[in-house]
Amino acid sequence: MTAGAAALLELARAGDPRTGEVLFDLVGAQVNRLVWRVLGADEDHDDLVQEVFVALLAGLTRVREADALRGWVAAVTINTVRSEIRRRRVRRWFGMQAAPDDLGHTPTASHEARELLGRTYAVLGRLPADERIAFALRFIDEQPLGDVAAACSCSLATVKRRISAAQARFRRLAERDPMLAEHLRELEVQR
């Protein structure tokens, strides 16, 4: 990616109109994956991805080194998703938006898997934004702790605290759901 990133940064600095296309080709899959992993099947997925790319294009010239591009893209994506989670929470608080409950287009193999995924994201939706993001990046996207900390723009110690708090809160909330509680018990037996 380094050669592609370097070429992208040169295009951006030159104001080349191909910058957006090259940016999307280079990091589009990464952005889509991160939005999906944090929010699950979300009706606003495409709009959020577009919002991320607007932010990426606006700030691309501030990236100095090609090696920093992937981490910067992750941080911008996570910040955009965090803002959306917070906006949704405020809208729900004031009754302006219903809580999402349709995961019908989730790309999983079975009805049971879709149901389990839907319930999991419903519990994740009840976590504070910073905890939800750290939890999703670590356990759903399976990123190393250092990458999670970088994407969340915080220290390793802070991300560890967020993940620990999210795990405890997730377990407490999941235990209230019979299907999730059963699945958690099965996972513990497998360990």
What labels describe this entry?
mainly alpha; 9 helices; 191 residues; elongated; single chain
Write the layout of secondary structure elements.
Layout: H1 2-14, H2 19-39, H3 45-59, H4 69-93, H5 111-124, H6 129-140, H7 145-151, H8 156-174, H9 178-190
Helix pairs in contact: 1-2, 2-3, 2-4, 3-4, 6-8, 7-8
Give a written overview of the molecule:
This protein is mainly α and 191 residues long. Helices cover 73% and strands 0% of the residues. It has helices spanning 2-14, 19-39, 45-59, 69-93, 111-124, 129-140, 145-151, 156-174, 178-190. The radius of gyration is 18 Å and the shape is elongated.
Care to give the gist of this entry?
This protein has 191 residues and is mainly α. 73% of the residues lie in helices and 0% in strands.
Strand content: under 5%
Instruction: Give the helix proportion (percent range).
Output: over 70%
Q: Let me know the number of strands.
A: 0
N- to C-terminal separation? 37 Å
Mean pLDDT level = 87
- What's the tally of helices? 9
How big is the Rg?
18 Å
Assembly status: single chain
Shape: elongated
Order of helices and strands: HHHHHHHHH
Unreliable residue stretches: 101-106
Q: Which secondary-structure class do the elements indicate?
A: mainly alpha
What's the story with the biggest beta sheet? none
